[in-house]
Amino acid sequence: MARNRKYQSAAIRFGPALKAFLLCLLIGGSAVGYVWQKNQIYQLGQQIKLRETTLKELAARNIALEQQLQEMHKLPFLELKAKNFGLAAPLRSQVWLLPEPARGPLRPAAEAQYAARENPVTSTR
User: What is the pLDDT of residue 125?
Assistant: First the structure.
């Protein structure tokens, strides 16, 4: 004798629906993961591009500075630096002499420690 559908267990009735839901969840999760991964690859590519551009700029600046250093080591530049441009020592009236601050007598380290231990405010008898 055939049994009616109303007597079937809940697991048998909801089994196919649960399988379909899990399959959709798997496919949807995979799609979200794929999009996230592509986004991460794009962002990392942008960071690499920015850093490569910065590296090229720094390399060009380094080359320019090396050329400038080579120019400064050449004889005409050094001769120009060696010339006296009318500079002289300052006059006596242009110099301010500042007195050194007074120094107190130096105590030995042991005496300073003894004085710190004998403080009457903190000692208890």
Answer: 47
Cβ pair 71, 77 in contact under 8 A: yes
Closest residue by Cα to residue 81 from 90, 73, 69, 93: 73
Sequence-ordered list of residues with C-beta below 8 angstroms from that of 72, at least 6 positions apart, any chain: 78
Exposure string over 41-57, b if 16+ CB within 10 A, otherwise e: eeeeeeeeeeeeeeeee
In the 8-state DSSP scheme, what is residue 74?
Answer: S
The tokens of 80 are what?
């120009």
Residue appearing with tokens 């850093």? 51
Q: Give how far Cα 70 sits from Cα of 43, 66, 76, 77, 83, Å.
A: 41, 6, 12, 10, 20
The pLDDT, as a whole number, for residue 1 is 47
Ranges of residues in the chain with a pLDDT under 70 are 1-11, 78, 80-82, 84-87, 106-125
